[in-house]
Design a protein that fits this description.
Elements: H1 4-17, H2 19-27, H3 39-48, H4 56-65
Length: 69
C-alpha cells in the first residue's frame, strides 16, 4: 500500500498525464467532468458528499484517492 507521499505523487503524475486530454476537451468546446458547469461534476460531488465550492483539483484528488483504502 503506497504511503501518503506516494499517493500524492501518483495523483500529480495523473494530473500531468491528463493535461492533453483536458486540452482536447476544451478545444472541442466542452468542459471536463470536474469543471464548474459540467453536469457530471454535481453527480460526483453528491456521491462523494462534497460541497460545490471545492476546488477543481481537490475534487479530482478526492475521486483519485478513493482507489486507496
Amino acid at each position: 500500500m503506497p504511503n501518503a507521499h506516494e499517493q500524492e505523487a501518483a495523483f500529480q503524475l495523473h494530473l500531468t498525464r491528463s493535461e492533453n486530454y483536458v486540452r482536447a476537451i476544451h478545444e472541442a468546446g466542452d468542459l471536463a467532468w470536474f469543471e464548474h458547469g459540467h453536469p457530471n461534476r454535481y453527480v460526483i460531488l453528491a456521491r462523494l458528499g462534497l460541497d460545490d465550492d471545492i476546488d477543481e483539483t481537490d475534487l479530482r484528488r478526492a475521486l483519485f484517492m478513493r482507489r486507496y483504502p
